[in-house]
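Reproducibility note. Readers wishing to regenerate the assembly model reported in the main text can use the exact inputs given here. Chain order matters: entities are listed in the order in which they were concatenated for prediction.
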Amino acid sequence: MDGGTRAEGMDGRMGQGAQHTLKEWILAAEVALLENVDDTAAERFSWLAEGLRRRSPEKLWDLLRDASKEELDKVPELDNLLERLAQTLVGVGRLGETADLVKAARQWEVRLAGSVYRQLAQAQMRSGETARAEETIRELLKQDADDVEAQRLLYRVLRETGRMAEAHDVLNRLVELDPSAATATFAHRERGKLGEMRGRPVRIALLSSYVLDPLIPFLDVECRRAGLAPAFYVAPFNQYTQEVLNLSSGLYAFAPEIVIVALDLEDLFPAVRGMPSVDELATGRDEIRGTITELARELHAHSNALIVVHELTLPGFSPHGILDNRRRDGLSRWTEDLNRELAEALGSQAHTFLLPLRQVLSRAASERGHSRKLYYMARMRHSDAALRELARYSMRYVKPLKGLTRKCVVVDLDGTLWGGIVGEVGAEGLHLGPTAPGIEFVDFQQALLNLTKRGIVLAICSKNNPDDVMPVLREHKHMVLREENFAALRINWRNKAENLAEIAEELNIGLDTLVFLDDNPVERELVRQMLPEVLTVELPKDASQYRSMLESLTDFELLALTKEDQQRAGQYQANRRRQALERSSGSLEEYMHSLEIRAEIVRAEAHHVPRLVQMLNKTNQFNTTTRRYQAPDMERFCASEDRRVYVLEVSDRFGEHGLVGAAIVRAEPETWYVDSFLLSCRVMGLSVETVLLKQIYDAARHRGVPRLVGEFVPTAKNSPTADFYRRHGFRLAENGDNTQAWTLDLRVDRIQDPAWIAVKATEE
Amino acid sequence: MRTIEEVVSGVFGVDQASVNESSSPESIEGWDSMGHVNLVIALEQNFNVSIDIDDVMDMGSVGKIRKILLEYGVKG
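Running the prediction on these inputs yields the following structure tokens for the assembly.
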């Protein structure tokens, strides 16, 4: 009798409703499994297995576990069967068997649905088998690293087992995978329980006429992405005026570094919901402008915070329809005028900005908008998509305030600056010109060139032969960027991570100020692995997206654009010429003399403040105390009697370096304290710092002050400054936990100007 | 398309097995007024419906959500 007949016999008996022992089922299924040779036998096995699964899932598992590879290969839809069996086993609490099954499935190269792993992990967690649950989840993540639910489970395991740092990391990953408001909110709430993650603190306050609380989870996400650990304050609903006017309000107690002022046009001027007359509009505009500028003035007077005021927006289409912009009482033009007036009024106040809300919202508008309904439901104004955009845009203010502005963009060439591989198709074969394909690269180069006008420098890192590349850089008629636009070139066949490290060293800037753009994912991954401080941008596959990707980066903002920023690109070229001179000079001394350095030192005045604040907040290496003073502090110092702020400007035969050094002195009758002393990395090594210190020394001696004290606060980055005071004859007098005090006795000690610098100092 | 339980567990980050018909703001952490708005947005996106504000206010438990969604022709 063959197997088929035997099994048919059993089918027949079952059809008659007879009772069967479990043993008979197993036997039948075993036989079917063994003799599973054709389609009908396969069907028969499936049917038997299904019955066995319901009656005794663990027995079915025994059967499958012991089956050979050849037998299993014949089982139809084995993955499906295993998935259902796993679910049943979890359901009856057989977690050990389920875990075995999942493991075996991997060996058999059967891919099980994520839900199997998740259900098993959840059951394991419920029964307290946390370590096993973690193993299950990590297995699933190996199979699918982007499984959001698995990341959520992993987070719970990490939290329950007290691994807070890892838990923070998983939350970071989770919000990347699922950018919804719900997940951002979840992450923000959980971080409160986890305790603080490492990161530089930043304090952000929201003042709003509507419910802007939902922005906080998104801002939280963005801040953490930038390595910051934010604290937030939200003024009580619609109490922004009281909060600003009352000096004992929660706002001032919070001591914010940034205040976001988000007032809604409808809240400020309810008449805009209807069709206000020309006169009403004129009065309304004056009132709104008055209200907002008054608020900003009060805030500025009582707080050092950076103030970010949202632009005002119309709630929707004008009730005048298409006639709106032909009418004197039209609302579109009225809103534009109002925003322009606000920009002017706020622009005249230091440390105060108008956030271009309309641009931000238009970027989010392509996604599903909810705003009206959210307003009715919860007095909110913006959709998730808009909040996400808004949080991202807000980082353009946060990052420069916290000194996180990137300074240099390093670009690859083939596939990045132009289409095609120059070594293969030659200069003439490249995609680069006024029509597509090619116009997208011209446009991208233009955007890079625009960055150089804001003080960002460019560099090249390309695997190529210089002989192929240089003619393109110098002569290709459609290149927007030329050799002189790049501060450093690395065109060779070496590892890109090494090249990037060298570029940072050559330009004397930190690796954490570099942005790396390369179309090759392999190179990007290498740089990400080896140099995580570098911002390696995920360049879109489609080159026509390059420019908008570059423009959406929030890492290039400056709170004020100084002369030094605009000249920076040229200064790095001058540096390259200086280095050429250095190579040709016999000795360092000879080189220094040949540079013809001129230094000028003056007491700082109001017009120096923007550049001073920028230096105080960006300079990490040559910075004795890294005290991050803001514009209001500096305005106060410049005006005060007991603070003396000095600025140093340097030039040489190759051009101007601009304002590159500063010192803040706290003058007391018996002692002058050097509170801050900093130097731009561009002029390190020229001894110009000695000239600035000498000036302080002269001024103090001139007034008969007997003692000069240099304060030094060591940080991870300012080691180049550690021996600054010692080099100039100061003695370590106090070595506290954080602060060292170095003293110089002005009655006996001397400081000498370097012979190769021509000094011009003007002081009263 | 996910089930109501999956949406709820996803929005509030709780174990799906702990979500049942009587789950409500009292029993689920994070289901406050802001959480409710997030939940409604997630339900609307998941089931591709637009829920009236009256109904939004009535969605006080998973059971009630199921009943209301049925009126929109959604079997969650």
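We highlight two features of this model. Residues 1-18 of chain A have pLDDT under 50 and may be disordered. Residues 278-302 of chain A form the longest helix (25 residues).
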